[in-house]
């Protein structure tokens, strides 16, 4: 039947009755939007509470980009889809492995399933590190702003992207990278008009600018203009984030860092533990590979209790959990996390060894994410929801709400 729902990962999704766009604003906490609205630079976002729906949700832990983007597009937590960070330690291979390859995915996406069911689907992501994961199994359009000049019909479902959008290739370390994503989404909506579209930005701006600053407000004003343009073109829009963002400094602006590997080596001895930071990826200039979540592999079970007791006493540490505790509480795949999971306090980050972190690229006070303090994110719609589940809302509910629970438009998009 052409109107049968789409079933994926134990959830059912109605087929789009109008072009439906889900936007993941990387690193967005609600205060960014509040400040932009208060400054009068985000009129579209300002009127969502009157004509749409304004909610809040929790992202998955760790509050990093890859686990959350994959949860959003699969509708399930990392315990199901398998992506729990940018890196994990492959004990059999004896090496740290980058989880950018789709072979590490354990669940199909809503996007690929919708395309297989006959919907036209498009995906635009800022960084190329996510493209292969988001586009796995997808028959449709899928490209990154970072490598937009390489996009072609065979591999990406579209070519001549720069000419179609009318913008030059953006720098990966710029607000332009995210603007390119929005410009591409608007272009695709107005030309190809896909049934379902996913847009994912980068958190370069949020790492550099606090809510309410000129740089942040200018960025949200830019997004607001594109969101209004897509709204006026008749799209159903759902907006969420992969994680929030917090300052990670003391009152003088100096980073609050606990170098876990250095500390553990001093107590237990060298090579007794291996600290892995799942925030680490090829783009570390704006955060120095410092986040508020780490996982620790212990060489001998004899050292496990000592390591846990020691870490629990450290000033910057908020939680220390065993593998079983972290897997259960944070919905993580136990085979892809260490023997210990450590989360930092709101204003602190975790490192490995001081010698392994290059902070030269930090030209502003450190802002980062990864812990429970960055879990709360917006969940916004340009339609009134017909109902809201009476349970804890998650950012990976956004496709369910956009496709299954949006009512008639209440404003400019009507």
- Rounded to an integer, what's the Rg over CA atoms? 21 Å
- Residue share in helices? 25-40%
Number of helices: 16
Overall geometry comes to globular
CATH architecture of the largest domain: 3-Layer(aba) Sandwich
User: Strand percentage, roughly?
Assistant: 15-25%
| Strand ordering within the main sheet | 4-19-10-3-9-7-8
Largest sheet: 7 strands, mixed
Instruction: Provide the CATH topology of the largest domain.
Output: Alkaline Phosphatase, subunit A
CATH superfamily grouping of the largest domain: Alkaline Phosphatase, subunit A
Q: Give the low-confidence spans.
A: 410-414
CATH class of the largest domain: Alpha Beta
Mean pLDDT, to the nearest integer, reads 93
Integer count of domains: 2
Structural class: alpha/beta
- Quote the distance from N terminus to C terminus: 28 Å
Assembly annotation: single chain
Number-wise, the strands total 21
Overview of this protein structure:
With 414 residues, this protein is α/β, with parallel strands linked by helices. The protein has two domains: 6-244 and 375-409, Alkaline Phosphatase, subunit A, CATH 3.40.720.10; 257-368, Gyrase A, domain 2 (2-Layer Sandwich), CATH 3.30.1360. 30% of the residues lie in helices and 21% in strands. It contains 16 helices and 21 strands. The chain has helices at residues 30-38, 43-46, 48-51, 65-74, 78-81, 110-116, 131-134, 153-156, 161-165, 176-191, 204-208, 214-232, 260-268, 304-312, 323-330, 398-404, and strands spanning 6-8, 11-13, 20-24, 53-58, 87-90, 95-98, 121-125, 141-144, 196-200, 236-240, 246-247, 257-259, 273-276, 293-298, 317-322, 340-344, 349-351, 367-368, 376-381, 383-385, 406-409. The strands form seven sheets. Strands 4-19-10-3-9-7-8 form a seven-stranded mixed sheet, with helices on both faces. Helix 7 (131-134) links the parallel strand 7 (121-125) and strand 8 (141-144). Helix 10 (176-191) runs parallel beside helix 12. It is globular and about 60 Å long.
